[in-house]
Structure formats: C-alpha cells, structure tokens
Specification:
With about 270 residues, this protein is of the alpha/beta class. The protein is built from ten helices and eleven strands.
C-alpha cells in the first residue's frame, strides 16, 4: 500500500470535519498570531505562501487566516504528493471563512520544487506537521536547496518539528514492536525491519490486526533539532528555534525559523545532485 493509504489508517487529524483537526487548526492559528506579533513573520500588503507536504492544507490555511484578518492579501499554494488530501484545502478556507486568500494546489515532490515553481517568487515557505522523518540527510539538503531557490531574497521558511533523538531514542527508547493506532475496528502496529547505515534511516513495516495484514513499508529518519538547524544554516543566513515551552501552545511542537536564503550559493549543484 502507499503512504497515502497508511495515513488513512493512522487517522492523523487533518480534515476540517474532524473535531481534533479543528482544535489543531486553532492551535496553529495561535502560534502564527504570536509569530506575527513578535515580528518573526512580517506583515505586508501581499504575501505569497508555499505550504510544503501540506496534506489537507491545515497549516497554510491557518497562516492565511491570520494574515487575512490583518488585511493582508494572500496567495497560497499547497503542495503534496497525496493528491487526495489536497482536495480539502478549499474546505478549510470555507470552514473558517478565510478572508483575502486565493488558494491553489499542486501535486509535486518537495525535493524537486525547482521543476514546478518559479525562482525567488515566494515570501513564506512552510513544512508543518512533523514531516522530517520521511527524509534522510541527503534528501533534506535537497529540500533546503529547493526552498532557498523558490523564496525571495528576504523569504522565510517555517518548520514544525520534534527532537526525536531526545524524545524517542533517549527518553523512551527505540521499540522493535510499536502500536501506532488503535480503534474499535482495528489496530495498526509497526515492526522494526532494519537500519540503513548510509541513509541513517530505520525501516519499519506496518500491519493491521486482527489478520496481520501488511499495510506499508517505510523508512524513517529520527532527526534531532540541531541536525536540521545545522543543515538549514548552510542555506539560510539566519535561523531561530522557538521551543514549545516558549510559544506555550500545547499540541504544537518546536518551531524552526529560517530567514534570508543564501542566493549566492551554487544552488543548481544541490538541486540536480
């Protein structure tokens, strides 16, 4: 099965008709409001946003809502490989009556943004929702290079992430067998299948029980925050970490902020590498 089908089994709160997703949306709004009030996200007359690995667009629409209420005209593009989820972007906009926002969706790989999008066009790019385990260090370099390519000179890249080295490998301990989701109808478990030394990824196979039906095989990178910040500092002149203790919104993880992409780098070498 595909990653899209796995997400359906895992019931990650993403759809506007889901109470848990609506609560999550409102928490994201609070964080973005705080970032604007603190001057981290600068309010302009018009802002062009690129929401990466957007899923249903929950984070991109949340930022559009906050900016729209401040009179900012927003152009939002939501990008994901899961085309089915992108159909919900307009529903989020309608559910929260987002003002001054124009949205479109693109089914694309965020490791190859330069193939789909114009250079130096976007004010804000975001990768929200704890997405980094899907990408190894080599892919992460390509993501940062691509984001640097599509952002304007004074562009900003926002990321929500968690330090899995500390929270999983240290505080909890890695588990060979793990219950991922449990509902009244079924349980999804994952089983350790190996470690890729070169890519730094753990391979896990997902099964649905009863019946022990194989759902998917995935490779995950358990990132630490410092590792992401370090790679990001190569492609951006300025970076900042806002911990969940600092923004104080329970349910939103640490926020990584990268500003001012290094346009003098030979980005094409990273993009095509």
């Amino acid at each position: 099965m595909s990653l899209e089908e796995l997400y359906e089994f895992l019931h990650w709160p993403m759809h506007p008709d889901d109470e848990g997703a609506r609560k999550r949306f409102e928490k994201i709004v609070r964080v973005f409001s705080s970032l604007i009030e603190d001057g981290i996200i600068e309010s302009k007359e018009e802002i062009v946003i690129l929401d990466l690995a957007a899923g249903t667009g929950i984070a991109g629409v949340a930022l559009a809502k906050v900016l729209g209420e401040r009179g900012v005209k927003v152009e939002l593009t939501a990008v994901d490989l899961r085309e089915k989820d992108l159909h919900f972007v307009d529903r989020w906009i309608k559910a929260y009556e987002v003002k001054n926002a124009k949205a479109n969706t693109v089914t694309a790989d965020i490791r190859e943004l330069h193939r789909y999008f114009e250079e130096s066009h976007y004010d804000v790019a975001m990768l929200w929702g704890l997405t980094m385990p899907h990408f190894d260090p080599f892919e992460t370099i390509k993501i940062f290079a691509n984001v640097s390519y599509v952002l304007k000179e004074d562009g900003i890249f926002l990321m929500e992430e968690s330090d899995r080295v500390f929270n999983i490998l240290y505080r909890v301990g890695y588990r060979d067998f793990l219950v991922e989701t449990k509902t009244e109808e079924y349980t999804v478990i994952s089983v350790h299948e190996g470690y890729n030394l070169k890519r730094g990824t753990f391979k896990r196979t997902y099964y649905k029980i009863p019946g022990f039906e194989k759902v998917s095989e995935e490779e995950h990178r358990l990132w630490d925050i410092a590792g992401i910040l370090g790679i990001g500092s190569i492609f951006f002149k300025d970076f900042k970490l806002i911990t969940k203790m600092e923004h104080e919104v329970f349910g939103v993880s640490d926020v990584l902020v990268f500003k001012n992409p290094r346009k003098n780098l030979p980005l094409n070498e990273f993009l095509e590498g």
